[in-house]
Amino acid sequence: MQSRSTSQNGQGERPLRADAQRNYDLLVAAADAGFTEHGAEASLEDIARRAGVGIGTLYRHFPTREALLAKVLDDSIAAMVARATELESVTPASAALTTWLESMIGHATTYSGLSKALAAALAGTCTELGNSCQAMTTAGARLLARAQAAGELRDDADIKDLLMAVQAAAWASEQLADPDAAQRMLTMVLDGLRVDAAPRRAPARRRIR
Amino acid sequence: MQSRSTSQNGQGERPLRADAQRNYDLLVAAADAGFTEHGAEASLEDIARRAGVGIGTLYRHFPTREALLAKVLDDSIAAMVARATELESVTPASAALTTWLESMIGHATTYSGLSKALAAALAGTCTELGNSCQAMTTAGARLLARAQAAGELRDDADIKDLLMAVQAAAWASEQLADPDAAQRMLTMVLDGLRVDAAPRRAPARRRIR
DNA sequence: ACCTGAACACCGTTCAAGT
DNA sequence: ACCTGAACACCGTTCAAGT
To answer: Please, which positions of strand C sit below 7 A from a protein CB?
Structure first.
């Protein structure tokens, strides 16, 4: 998945020298391959090797593993944001949100260990990946607000918790090596958020410690 | 938390030579301290150093990190199983399950990274920790069955999924550095499992792709 | 029986030296 | 301006040599 609009580092930075741009692109491609094969914790040395570049060059372009990850995910995250926008015209609103969250699971399981990186970024880190996640959060918040306005989902549902639940479900699925587990967990969570499920906190007969 | 019944390696193995038993105990204590301070991924070399023992001795007694973790968790896991048994006499049954799962969150957050180890063990590894988790699963299954028999929780709720959801919630909480997040996630899941929440799969007006 | 620690094969990260 | 790779400080794991 390296269909980057052509190559280009970022979309607004000063142009790189030709050889530097080439190394940059080789690194992104190698990282995508490395992450796919060995997960988000793939060896950076190995990625540099694959790219045919010194390890120092990798660090020069991407001072942290997270920066490299953010660049590799650029396209797919933009796609997730776009998908949310499309879904804003779908009814019922809660179904649109469900559909979107399901594709988020697909995204978070692109390669192993990604859910952890995304969870950290969602937690509000001020990093490239954090910014990308912020965009997803905003997009998701609109879908959630629609479902709440339609009276379909509980008002106390929170988009951040929901997105973390998606990462948690993806993570659990990975640990279990069971691709269906994530979907099951998400369904449990969403079932708990429907409004007709709201006003009963517990069978509430007796209170226990 | 090293209140091991005295020392004793396991409870049915052949006795160790006095010096070996001493090293064994030192290692367990050092591991507990190390895991508490640096998480379940704490350096094994550091643990051996703390115990004042060669790294080879650590590997002789505990051939894998998981074996060491299992021994360190022995007491607390036994306590969780006992707690489940106590709770079998509490009503309503679903509240008893909820209470137990909440203490499971506490247990899974004893130190960082523990939820991952427990998730792997719950996934059905044939290891010491896997066996301990099997005992917890059995204990939990009884609490869940009670709540289902009482008609309080959906029949399609599964104890393995539920215990994985607990680990996932603990994990998310850890990533967010928000101790309350796990409780919130668990509540969402449990809300989705109540019987009065069962027969509505979605607002079901229109079907979207 | 048990312990030790050197040895090996890996990491991530930095930085002086090059072009 | 950019690249390289040696250097450093860490790992986990094994195993020959000791007692």
So the answer is: 1-7, 10-16
